[in-house]
Amino acid sequence: MLSRFGRPSLFAHTLNFKRLLALAKQTRSLATVDRNTPRVPPNPPRTRATPVSHDRATFTIRDGPVFNGKSFGAKSNISGEAVFTTSLVGYPESLTDPSYRGQILVFTQPLIGNYGIPSDARDEHGLLRYFESPNLQAAGVVVADVAEQYSHWTAVKSLGEWCAEEGVPAVSGVDTRAIVTYLREQGSSLARITIGEEYDADQDEAFVDPEQINLVRKVSTKAPFHVSSASGSSHVAVIDCGVKENILRSLVGRGASVTCFPYDYPIHKVAHHFDGVFISNGPGDPTHCQDTVYHLQRLMESSQIPVMGICLGHQLLALASGARTIKLKYGNRAHNIPALDLTTGRCHITSQNHGYAVDTSTLPADWKEYFVNLNDSSNEGIIHKSRPIFGTQFHPEARGGPLDSSYLFDTYLESVGRYKRNQAVLRPMREERPSPLLVDLLAKERVGVVPTTGMENLLRMGNAGEEAARAA
User: Which residues neighbour 325 within 8 Å (Cβ) at sequence distance 6 or greater?
Assistant: First the structure.
């Protein structure tokens, strides 16, 4: 299986974990470090803000219909993949979910924006309380009707003001029913949002396909960062493919400190310092992440450490096992999708956001299907038959959405605890908690993640980024 992907060259990282750990051990006695150092993330200036535009707006589906409406966001023309969500609430969480990077999000709920946009307040862990990442991730927003007047005790601005601040165009006054009908019949399609200009059929050639870009590279941290837990002593390594804040909160709140690594970090080389490995959600085609797949293969070959994956992380786990993934016609994006647990026969209502799925007919003999979608029979989870490794296509952390399946974090951390106890017997000199100096030296927030700038700019940045990464 390893030969299928080949051994990739390792990219240089800003921070070498092993060398830093050695430094921490050597100098611990020479430094006094407060283990409760507050998590104060940087507050970068917003350079993409524009005044709220109320110009004419056009939403164009490539080789499909053209919809004329009114702008209520940034005055910016963009291209991306048009997808739809049937979620009734949770638009601040959805729009900041890194899994939506490069996509134009169409809301089926007729009225969006009525409770405004909350502040960027943080919780006791230093994580964003109301958002899933520091920036609006979707390339564009399409709604039938937008509420410019909002009312909610947490709101500090309107949806339109937020989109303008983030440089993201938004369109209202279009028939989202017709858009969704088209997307369901034809599948997810490339589309453009044009502000203040007439539609020109010649512009069809300018459509940009985000599936051709490694979007995970755009949303993943460029160097490790750490989030400490005040309770418990477990330490989990998170492979950040675009991790949501509530995934980190779900781990830290259950007593596991987390260190998040870039998506292509050779995790198998440092896994022995941790009690578990977690693979996060993220955007785009999982087959772009060949380095991650290779490192997961090496990890499962060399370690018995517990592993859990969510969404894209679940797909990468499947690829590392030897299975394949497929692209769904229009994906599953909603907060009310039923998933059946094949081990217990129980049905859970789940939150989902994905355009790809695992082809279970290609699973190796030592893996089995864990959950199945009761709407379209697509795969919703896989589990190893004898080892503490599993993945779910849906989001147990559900921000927003139901919490039916949040117990899966408890299941995972129970296996993390067992592994930690076993390691204490086998390796009695192993440290119980993360090094306080290491914790103090690591960043406390995603490092070097560039906000969405629309797919036309993203393509140019993507090509430059790929060249820079290869050169590094």
Answer: 286, 287, 315, 318, 319, 356, 357, 358, 359
Per-residue model confidence (pLDDT) at position 180: 97
In this prediction, the residues of the chain whose per-residue pLDDT falls under 50 are 1-15, 21, 23-47, 455-472
CA 246/CA 232 separation, integer angstroms:
18
Q: Are 250 and 406 in contact (CB under 8 A)?
A: yes
Q: Has 397 been annotated as catalytic?
A: yes
pLDDT tens figures, 147-206: 999 999 999 999 999 999 999 999 999 999 999 999 999 999 999 999 987 656 565 567
Catalytic residue among 311, 335, 384, 456: 311
Confidence at residue 201, expressed as pLDDT on a 0 to 100 scale: 58
> Catalytic site residue 395?
yes
**CA separation, residue 242 to residues 70, 235, 309, 368, 450 (Å):** 31, 20, 12, 26, 12
Our CA dihedral for 190, 195, 196, 200, rounded to 10 degrees, sits at -10
β pairing state of 276-279 and 307-310: parallel
The number of beta carbons lying within 10 Å of the beta carbon of residue 306 is 25
Q: Which of 81, 161, 395, 456 is catalytic?
A: 395
| Per-residue confidence (pLDDT) for residue 40, from 0 to 100 | 47
With beta carbons less than 8 A apart as the criterion, state whether 94 and 143 touch: no
Q: Tell me how far CA of residue 167 lies from CA of 73, 134, 216, 314, 458, in angstroms.
A: 8, 14, 20, 31, 13
Output the pTM of the full model: 0.87
Strand 367-373 versus strand 379-384 pairing type? antiparallel
Q: Establish whether 198 is a catalytic residue.
A: no
Among candidate residues 93, 166, 397, 456, the one labeled active-site is: 397
Angle at 384 between CA 431 and CA 268, to 5 degrees: 40
